[in-house]
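Example 4.3 (complexes with small molecules)
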Amino acid sequence: MNVSDNYRAAWESYWSSTSDATGEAIWDADPSLTAAPHSALLLPHADPARTVVDLGCGNGTQTRYLATRFARAVGVDLSHAAVEHARSAAEGTGVEFEQLDLTDLDAVRALHTRLGDTHVYMRAVIHQSEPPARPLVAAAVAELIGADGRAFVVELTPASRDVLARAASGPDGPPPKLRRVFDHGLKPAAAPDGEITRLLAEAGLTVLADGDTTLPQTEHHTDGTRIDLPAHWYVLARE
Ligand SMILES: C[S@@+](CC[C@H](N)C(=O)[O-])C[C@H]1O[C@@H](n2cnc3c(N)ncnc32)[C@H](O)[C@@H]1O
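Answer. The structure with S-adenosylmethionine bound is encoded below.
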């Protein structure tokens, strides 16, 4: 399966209308708040000499950090415009990016054939994917890590919806970066309670460690506090 035309167009229009400015995307938090603590959770289970692939890497902010912790980092994203942002921000660093739809099993297999078993980093992709795509995204994680890689997956939980509703409830409606998400038809935290845990298990992934966390955003509530979205993280291996 490939994603629907509407879904692909939503992401393409979002990233095409986003500049290269750091933090313009609401989830584009500094790696010190995201990929750095996530790497600290993954590395006790993972060989840093192995390649890491950042699935749904967006503009590559976290991928560039991962390249400092692992021998090689490759970011893949559905959106051509996202990959262009990522390449331009990473110019001269050796970090690689390519356009890839995680629901395209042939493309995922070809990537695995090229790179071998890799580690995977995936932040905030399944929670907003279309329902038929979610199992395929989980399966892509399993395909890429193979027998020897490990995955770090962190996804928004349904509790994020309450925080987003609070953020949108000010007198002026959603703050600008959140408004852009809704204006492009993106659907954060759409996956129902328990679904992501179930899909990872059904993809043949076993949980080595997991826990609750938040994903800090680059946008604030009307009272000036940062929007931190409830999330759950997993370190995973193939059963
Ligand atoms: C919420 S953003 C998170 C971006 C990045 N992981 C981060 O944490 O900064 C979700 C990203 O996943 C990408 N994406 C969504 N569905 C995808 C798919 N089927 N295959 C590959 N990328 C996808 C989107 O284009 C978008 O860049």
